[in-house]
């Protein structure tokens, strides 16, 4: 069975303090790994898709990387507006839906 | 703004009742997905429709049903509601399916009293 585990569950950072969020997974055949940001009470907002090990994508202060067993979301010099829950989801090789992790709740303190 | 719309934003109802949640996908998207998000369970996939046909099914209860209409909007019907059905319900859409990115709507918050 496909599984996605995100760690830590919650992370508190000072503004400017860089860190990484982890998404480890087990899947029969990975077709894609997705990162979303979700603000409280809102719908998830798409950030990145990674398709193969070694791939990296960047957007502003965020950088996502992928290996054969895990993905990292690196946050460089975060700002308070980066506070949100970050979700990763994987798509396997079959015709099955996205499997979401439970998320990392990030708080960035000014 | 993802381009996916959902109505209503909030719904408060009583146990045993039936409600309908509505979703309009982004222009050009043929696939619609429904998810349930509760505090302890995270985002759980319910069902996917592609161009009017059911394509994939998750752990959707028999009391729940959905359909996608010719204009591609979708409705999720929840009946015989229980307290445990209180959650956020999200609709997402994608161009077709598979590896296509899913874009989420703002959600409907359902409270069952």
Structure description:
The complex is a heterodimer of chains A (110) and B (113). With 110 residues, chain A is mainly β. Chain A contains no helices and eleven strands. Chain A has strands spanning 3-7, 10-14, 19-26, 30-38, 45-50, 56-59, 62-66, 70-75, 84-92, 99-100, 104-109. In chain A, the strands form two sheets. In chain A, strands 2, 4, 5, 9, 10 and 11 form a six-stranded mixed sheet that branches. A five-stranded antiparallel sheet of chain A has the order 1-3-8-7-6, with no helix packed on it. In chain A, strand 7 (62-66) and strand 8 form a beta hairpin. Chain A is globular and about 45 Å long. By secondary structure, chain B is mostly beta strands. Helix content of chain B is 0%, strand content 53%. Chain B contains no helices and eleven strands. In chain B, the strands form two sheets. In chain B, strands 2, 4, 5, 6, 9, 10 and 11 form a seven-stranded mixed sheet that branches. In chain B, strands 1-3-8-7 form a four-stranded antiparallel sheet, with no helix packed on it. Chain B is globular, with a radius of gyration of 13 Å. The mean pLDDT of chain B is 95. The chains are: A mainly beta (110), B mainly beta (113). Chain A binds chain B through residues 31-32, 34, 36, 41-46, 49, 51, 87, 89, 91, 95-103, and chain B through 2, 4, 33, 42-45, 48, 55-56, 58, 88, 90, 92, 97-99, 101-107, 109.
Distance between the termini of chain A: 41 Å
Helix amount of chain A: under 10%
Order of helices and strands of chain B: EEEEEEEEEEE
* Coarse morphology of chain B: globular
Q: How would you spell out the order of helices and strands of chain A?
A: EEEEEEEEEEE
Rounded Rg of chain A: 13 Å
Strand content of chain A: over 45%
- Biggest chain-to-chain interface with counts: A-B, 24 and 25 residues
Q: Count the E strands of chain A.
A: 11
Largest sheet of chain A: 6 strands, mixed
Oligomer: heterodimer
Strand content of chain B: over 45%
Rg over CA atoms of chain B: 13 Å
Protein structure class of chain A: mainly beta
How helical, in percent, are the residues of chain B?
under 10%
Task: Please outline the major beta sheet of chain B.
Answer: 7 strands, mixed
